[in-house]
Write a structure and sequence with these properties.
The protein is an alpha+beta fold. Helix content is about 40%, strand content about 15%. It has a 3-stranded antiparallel sheet, with no helix packed on it. The chain has a two-stranded antiparallel ribbon with strand order 2-3. β4 and β5 form a beta hairpin. The longest helix has 20 residues.
């Protein structure tokens, strides 16, 4: 209780980002109604991975995948962009602080 943590993805309960709404719809489609930071981050990672795969094309290799990610420009996930380069592989500089409340739930 009272601990502040930093997250590299938006809140899965915030309608501010289109990617969050898309994630929530996808979760509901498979019968999941509880959202969390970890599954949202996984959803975003999978979506960006697929975008890079599509851009890379059929002749896939580790090197070509990395080269594509580094040169393809921003990947728009829905009001949330990732950008990779030869020097930066983290994709985003987004950080949001979240407080853990007395009940163990996240408070913005």
């Amino acid at each position: 209780s009272g601990v502040v943590i930093s997250n590299a993805v938006p809140s899965p309960w915030s309608p501010k980002f289109a990617i969050v709404e898309e994630y929530r719809k996808a979760m509901k489609k498979v019968g999941k109604t509880e959202y969390d930071f970890t599954s949202l981050e996984g959803y975003m990672a999978a979506k960006s991975f697929v975008a890079i795969l599509k851009e890379t094309g059929r002749d896939l290799s580790r090197e070509k995948f990395i080269d594509t990610a580094e040169r393809m420009g921003p990947i728009d996930l829905g009001d949330f962009q990732l950008r990779f380069s030869g020097k930066h592989h983290e994709g985003s500089k987004f950080v949001e602080l979240v407080l853990i409340g007395r009940d163990g739930k996240f408070v913005r």
